[in-house]
Amino acid sequence: MTRAVKNGALALLAAVACIGARLAAQDMATAPPTSSSAAASSSGSNKTSEPFYRKYLVAGNSLDDQIVEQEKRIAETPNDANLHNDFGNLLAKRRFPKEAAEQYEIAAKLDKSNFIAYYNLGLLRETEGKIDAAISAYEKSIKRKPGFPPSRFRLGRLFERVGRSEDAVAEYSQAFLTDPSMRDPKRNPLVIDSELIYRASLANYQRDVATAVESDAMWVEENRFKKVPVDRSVAAEEVEPAEPGEATPREVGPAGAATTPEGHPRRARPPVAGEGGSVGGPQQRTAPARPTRMNRAGPRPTPAPAPAPEVVPPPDEAPSQPQPQPEPGQDPNNPETMPEQPQPPEEVEPS
Q1: pTM for the structure as a whole
Q2: In this predicted model, what pLDDT tens digit does every residue of 143-157 receive, in sequence order?
Q3: Which burial class, exposed, middle or buried, applies to 180 when counting CB atoms under 10 A from its CB (0-12, 13-18, 19+)?
Q4: I want to staple 84 with a disulfide (CB 3.0 to 4.6 A). Which of 31, 41, 107, 301 is the partner?
């Protein structure tokens, strides 16, 4: 009997020990982390918060240094959409497409009128071979800026690739209507790859020779987009209109000594009749009265030509006498055949 009691007591103690071990394990699981475990978790969170691309940047590399500088600019101005767009261009050039797409999306969300971010996102998706995503990005860019030719041309190019010829021609024609220089291979080398350019040109023929309709003319913004490249991503400064700089103050000399924009003294203008002097200020000039038909002066009479002067021979010279013509049988060289000439009477002196 005593032996059985001992065995039962031992079994009970073993069960209690097992239950205690289980409770201790649960307490350790729910207890706060120690200093060493907290340090490990903090180091792990720092590793996850660091951008993926940063560990691949090389100090001294031109592109990597630009990425680091752009990070600093965004840290100072985090809500600038243009900075995020340009940062996406740098990451895309460095072959980090995922991070570049994130920057393009951030730029598009910060500025609801920003169309360049979606255009660059379309280029990125197109290079990745994601045609549907690229089409969606180009369509969003066109929705924000219908008159941006590169977005329309790129979208038409993808439509042509997937077999949507009618949609491709429509996008091509709109791009060429806004910027006719996109037909030139020097301006846009991608036109060589298209087989639908001639159809887009035919679609625009009547509108090219006629006046553009108002709905199309409102999209045209002069020469703003005519230098935007079609074969690479676009920076914000390439499409943003340049803000006019402040005018340089011009030195003004004494009164009456005006200067030209180059700073040279301007030559004084001679006084004009009808303008007041320096006392009363300039007076309004009145034009002279226009003569009416009644008091208008008639045409000037044409003077008659002067008569030719009469030529009078000098008094000293007597008029020449006509020479007698020889008759038949008379020879002027033979004096015998010629009759005798009458001699003039001799002058008789008065007595």
Answers
A1: 0.52
A2: 999 999 999 999 999
A3: middle
A4: 107
Residue 39 parent element (H or E): helix 35-49
The rounded radius of gyration (Å) of the Cα atoms in the chain is 54
Q: Is the dihedral of CA 229, 230, 232, 236 positive or negative?
A: positive
Cβ-proximal residues to 208 (8 Å cutoff; 6+ apart), any chain? 180
Both tokens of residue 133? 């995503």
Which domains are delineated in the chain? 53-145 (1.25.40.10), 146-223 (no CATH)
The structure tokens listed for 183 are 């037909």
Determine the straight-line distance between the first and last CA of the chain, rounded to whole angstroms.
232
What is the Cα–Cα distance from 187 to 68, expressed in whole angstroms?
A: 33
Cβ atoms within 10 Å, residue 98: 11
- Residues forming beta bridges with residue 259, ordered by sequence position: 265
